[in-house]
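re: ur question from yesterday

yeah so i grabbed the chain u mentioned. its 296 aa long if i counted rite. heres the sequnce exactly as i have it in my notes:
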Amino acid sequence: RLRNRAMRQLDMGVRDFATRKASFAFRSAHTGNANPQEPTVPGNPDNNWTVEALLRDDHGAIAQRLRNDPDYIRERDFHGDTPLLAAIRFSALDVVHVLLRNGADPNAAAQNGLTGLQLVTLSESGVAIEILLELIRAGADVHAFGFKGWTALHLAANSGRGEMVRALLEMGADVNQRMEVDGQQTPLMLAASFGQPLTVRILLEHGADPTLRDMDSELTAQEIAEEVARGPDPETVALIRRANLRSTNPELFTDQIPPEVLQEIDPAQEYIDSMNSIAQEGRHAEVARVLADYRR
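ran it thru and got these structure tokens back, copy pasting raw so excuse formatting
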């Protein structure tokens, strides 16, 4: 089905389709399959005060500044982060608590569009779930789209963070929410595409619909797992090469990669390498079995 659709897309105009396929592979290899946005808020290149305090583990200084400077809580640093976003990056639970208690905006976004809730879903810290719960209790929107159409649940499912997925679902995240970009995948489709059986089971336990289909490939989560397990699709490789995509295509690559590096990138080879890596690292056969058994 995927190959037939690919050939139809080739007849209609290969560039858009091939760009999406190569973009998926590149983002998977270089940016965790998340497509960074252009900066949405200005940073202050001279402001590194909060980061320096966090590096010193001087949380008391942050609390003192909150008392002395009412505007501090809304400042943006050199990275474009508010003090709350910086504290989330440093997994400073006590600072997060103090900032939220003093009115920090739990839905403030970083320069690339990630909200605090989305940032913490990518954290491997032992207090990440506690920070997530603090944010939601303070009003963080579990349904918010950021990062060009990803919710926190999509990011957690994509990364295989099962307990983070469970926490988000228990706090009201929509288990069947579709992304706003690409094939409008559900969290289940993302977990299946990266071979994450534990995350797939948790999503199914909370009502994920395995019959929904990706809007581009027209595949279900089970079919996606089976397709990815086979590795690079020769027809897709041919499509990318026939499209003559250049690595400098702004639709394909992110502004985080220096131009001199982009010049050396072969989009077709990126697709091959990335899909091989995903197939080898994921447990796609197990995911396919879980989904097949669930539908019986």
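noticed a couple things. The first helix runs from residue 2 to 30. also The CA atoms of residues 247 and 265 lie 6 Å apart.
anyway ttyl
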